[in-house]
Amino acid sequence: MNHSIIICDSESNNYLDKNNATVFAFNNSSESNDSLFYNTINYILNNKAVTTCSIFFPLNINQLFWDFLNLSNFLKWTGINIETNISDSIYDEFNDYLSVTKNNSRKSTLEYFQKPASEGKVLGRTPFGYVKDSNGGYKIHSEESLIVKEIFSLYVKYNYGLRKIAAHLNNNEIRTRKGNPWNIASLRLILTNPIYMGTYKRYRFTKFSNHQPIIESSIYRKAQDIMTSRSPYRKLPKNDFFLLSGLAKCGYCKNSYVGVQKHQYWKTYSSRLNKGTYKYYKCLSNLNENICMSETRSAEKFESNIIKRIILLLPISNNLSSNIFYKIFQNYLKVHNVKEYALAHPHYSITELISFDFITHNQHQDLLKQILNAWKSDTLLTFLTDIFTKNWESLKAEDKRIVLELLVSYINVYEKRVRLSI
Fold first, then answer.
1. At a CB cut-off of 8 Å and minimum separation 6, what does 314 contact?
2. Whole domain around residue 261: which residue ranges?
3. 156 and 204 in one domain?
4. Is 92 found in the same domain as 19?
5. Is this model's pTM higher than 0.90 or not?
6. Residue 256 domain-assigned (yes or no)
7. Same domain, yes or no: 292 and 328
8. How confident is the model over 313-366, as pLDDT tens digits?
9. Do the Cβ atoms of 38 and 55 come closer than 8 Å?
10. Are residues 400 and 318 in the same domain?
């Protein structure tokens, strides 16, 4: 027997005629509705009797309005018939909203920021060592500025390298503003930023003595001379595709495991130069700072073992289809959501946006359609198993990655074990 569901905001839920439909009421405030989105998708995927979804849009243009547009497009893609209930006032507000947005967009980013930049004002986040004062200018942060001075002193006076400075700060439990350990990249940003000698550079404007300096100009320039005289930063060669880079996490420090490719050269007894390539995974904390107890993993063995583990876990995985389709929905929101599309195409009406086929703009649309068809025919488990056991080698690297992203909940790497969940 066919069944319908209703999606609405929590206020509308109080007076709607449910007519035996299942209702999913969403929070109309700024709080996250992620769990409700998952529950809605999970309910539909596990109740194939659901054929119709009635969506009662909120009475004004807010984040929930855009969320409902995104969800309606996604559910329509899965084959659900969508019935929308939108008040007449929303159509007028929507047109006014896009009209104002369109007029504002005519101002370029440069024009918008030129005036505050010409006055040496803070634009965006303040650099480490400074905070924004009541007039919008730069004010020295008493604690952070001491760390900035120490970094310059270690580099200029004591001749420390970036790696050694990072180790020194981290060993003394001195962290960045976000509470993260220091690394080479974050230190280089500080040592090369003229803001610390009072010089402001933003949007084609340069203002000397714009604010109180943390570092004397002579020390800053000495740091630049040292930076130039030492081995220049060389761009790493382009690595091969690493399937698990960023997807696997260190079980000790929670940082990402990333793929690294190194070239080795050696001479034979006949003085012939040979070249070899070694690919492995390493904790990002260890890549720059050597502050984690994790070990490297051979890329080939690591990836092969993960694939074997996934094949074993597939038959016993709970909510497999719900997890996959919710991740497809999340992936869509990152790549191409309706709000971004509407702002880029202000001539589109609400009706046209509701009819928008999101999958057309996804680079993995063929694979996603195959997953959808497998779910509809109750062969999703067989389809996924065949991908890993029969078709894995023929898949493009990008499609392999998206399959892993859709399946894997977490990969936590420890010294002698790997925890994997799908």
1. 320, 381, 384, 385, 388, 422
2. 248-301
3. yes
4. yes
5. no
6. yes
7. no
8. 988 887 788 888 888 888 777 766 777 777 777 777 787 777 766 666 566 778
9. no
10. yes
Pairing of strands 138-140, 130-132: antiparallel
Q: Cβ-count burial of 50 within 10 angstroms (0-12 exposed, 13-18 middle, 19+ buried)?
A: buried
**What is the spatial distance between Cα 191 and Cα 160, in angstroms, rounded to a whole number?**
12
**SS3 of residue 126 by DSSP:** coil
Number of domains composing the chain: 4
Among residues 155, 237, 137, the alpha carbon closest in space to that of 192 is found at 155
**What CATH number is attached to the domain comprising 221?**
3.90.1750.20
35 and 58 inside one domain:
yes
d(CA 68, CA 24) in angstroms, rounded, equals 12
Kindly report the length of the chain: 422
* Location of structure tokens 């597939």: 314
> What angle in degrees, to the nearest 10, is found between the helix axes of 142-156 and 217-229?
50
The 10 Å CB-count burial string (b at 16+, else e) for 364-402 is beebbeebbebbeeeebeeebeebbeeeeeeeeeebbbb
CB-based contact 289:255 (threshold 8 Å): no
Q: Are residues 155 and 180 in the same domain?
A: yes
